[in-house]
Amino acid sequence: MSDENRWRLSEALRGIQSLIDSGEVRLILRHKLSGPESLLAALALEAASANDEPNLWPFHDAIAELRGGITACSLTRAAGDVGINAHRLW
């Protein structure tokens, strides 16, 4: 998935967030890996989900905002920015 497609997906998800929050829509996403960077992002999101992290979607959006600059450091910073304990995440 290209960076542009990731950005468009993020915008679409924001558009249906109220339906997800209300329980009218249940969304299940799977990761399409396109290289080491996307694998790192996928693992971080899976770890946040496995920890029942309430800030999963803000974390997802923060990762989408990185637009290709995904590193362990940028993911750690994004987690902290949305209130996720990065030490627990890793």
Question: Quick recap of the structure?
Answer:
The chain has 90 residues and is mainly α.
Descriptive notes:
With 90 residues, the chain is an all-alpha fold. The chain has helices at 3-15, 17-22, 36-50, 56-66, 72-81, 86-89. Helix 1 packs antiparallel against helix 4 and helix 3 packs antiparallel against helix 4. The longest helix has 15 residues, at 36-50. It is globular and about 35 Å long. It starts with a helix and ends with a helix.
What keyword list fits this structure?
mainly alpha; 90 residues; 6 helices; 0% strand
Question: What does the secondary structure layout of this molecule look like, with pairings?
Answer:
Layout: H1 3-15, H2 17-22, H3 36-50, H4 56-66, H5 72-81, H6 86-89
Helix pairs in contact: 1-4, 3-4, 4-5
Quick one: biggest sheet? none
- How much strand content do the residues show? under 5%
Helix content: 55-70%
Please tally the helical runs, counting DSSP H or I stretches of 4 or more residues.
6
